[in-house]
Amino acid sequence: MRHNRSGRKLNRTASHRKAMLSSLSVGLLTHKRIQTTVAKAKETRMVVERLITKAKNAVAGEQSSGKKNIHTRRNVFAYLRDRKALGVLFNEVAPKVAARPGGYTRVIKLGRRFGDGAELAILELVDFNIGQDKAAAKSAKSSKPRSKKSGRKKPEATPVEESKTSEATTAGSVPSDEPSKP
Fold first, then answer.
1. Any alpha helices (H) in 37-163, and if so which ranges?
2. CATH level 3 topology of 14-131
3. Quick one: pLDDT at residue 2?
4. Is 106 helix (H, G, I), strand (E, B) or coil?
5. Would you place residue 102 in the very low, low, confident or very high pLDDT band (cuts 50, 70, 90)?
6. Whole-number Å distance between alpha carbons of 150 and 11
């Protein structure tokens, strides 16, 4: 029986599952948002939240002692195997989520994929939500007072009359050098 066993096998071998979750974790940390199936998103969420907590605690320890926590960085690198993602995790993500006590990621269900009917989801970092940043910028832009001119209607453009000289040239009064086609 499968009592109290956490995690999903995702129909993969242990090495393939570890490599896939590592790759999804790197993608999430570098892009702040990924689209995948719901099961993979939930598994990746478990992995990424543990890594973020380790990085957050290491950064807090580094700030108090003044020395870098190389041991934690190497443990996280052993899982991620990507220097860029490691830098993003320790330099961008961990300081930004320092005050948050867990729950660093969000799973948003999208519906089913056309090809095979798999349930899709977006996995994103909560504090790096692109939609919230755009909404905040939009609300800041809309909070500015409107000018008085914005309420007025624009005057309609009047058609410009053609001059008589242009009509005469188009009628064929000026001979052209090219022979006319029959």
1. 38-65, 70-80, 83-88, 94-96, 130-142
2. 50s Ribosomal Protein L17; Chain: A, (3.90.1030)
3. 82
4. strand
5. very high
6. 60
Is residue 43 within 8 A of residue 123, CB to CB? The reply is: no
Q: Which of 132, 148, 64 is nearest to 98 (CA)?
A: 64
End-to-end CA distance of the chain: 93
Q: Phi and psi (nearest 5°) for 91?
A: -100, -30
Element (H, E) at 34: strand 33-37
51: closest CA among 123, 104, 101, 15? 104
- With residue 25 as reference, give the H or E element that holds it: helix 14-31
Q: Strand 119-125's sheet: what is its strand order? A: 33-37, 119-125, 105-112
The token pair at 167 is 């009509």
Please count the other Cβ atoms lying within 10 Å of the Cβ belonging to residue 33. Answer: 17
Q: What are the angstrom distances between the C-alpha of 108 and each of 6, 45, 78, 120, 150?
A: 21, 12, 29, 9, 39
Nearest to 28 by CA among 104, 109, 110: 104
- 34/48 Cα distance (integer angstroms): 13
Determine how β-strand 33-37 pairs with β-strand 119-125: antiparallel
Q: Is 107 helix (H, G, I), strand (E, B) or coil?
A: strand
1: confidence class by pLDDT, cuts 50, 70, 90: confident
pLDDT band, very low/low/confident/very high, at 129 (cuts 50, 70, 90): confident
